[in-house]
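User: Structure please.
Assistant: Input sequence and predicted structure:
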Amino acid sequence: MKTQEIQLLGAENPSTRLQAVLRVGTVADPAVVDELVARCAVEPDFFVRDMLTWALVRLPAELTIPRLRAELDSERAQARSQALHTLSKIKESTTWQAIKGLLRDPDDEVARTAWRTAVILVPDEEKSWLAAELAAELGRGDRSLQLSLSRVLVDLGEIVEPVLRTAAASENPKIRAHARATEILLDDPDAAFDLAVGEAKRVIALDPEQVKKTAC
């Protein structure tokens, strides 16, 4: 791979960077794996980051996975998030253990990506554990983050029902509303999240004690 093309990965114009990643990815030269991983940590443009993931997926997994796993310990949130995203595309089951520790990452975007990646990679025998771990994050963040969590819980299926019932009895009204909204989405995945949250809040406001009894 030409040095000039590697240098263009850091060009000022995002279109130039995008074209550079496309060329690098098309060649799929294993010698550039370090440069691609390093660029993932700092690239500001979403489309370029997505192309970086594509380029990394085209390289041998035995080269990319160790480097991506190392990024999971980075102090830079984007490095952790992008590494998780790329691992979710590679879909190598041996990376499951490496991502478990990021499910409660203090950075919302890293946590969101970890949730999505976990649902893809979780072994069947650990789905119950994952359901409980994800349920512990109910009530976290803004509407967008809560919707992301609800979607991954719904993707796990009926196995999440017990932990949602428990969360629906929480003393924290934000957790209760989020849990019941997720229960609504589990029954009807096509339901609108905002309507589900509104319905959950109405039920809690009208009869909070009955909600707790139902959840027990």
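Residues 210-216 have pLDDT under 50 and may be disordered.
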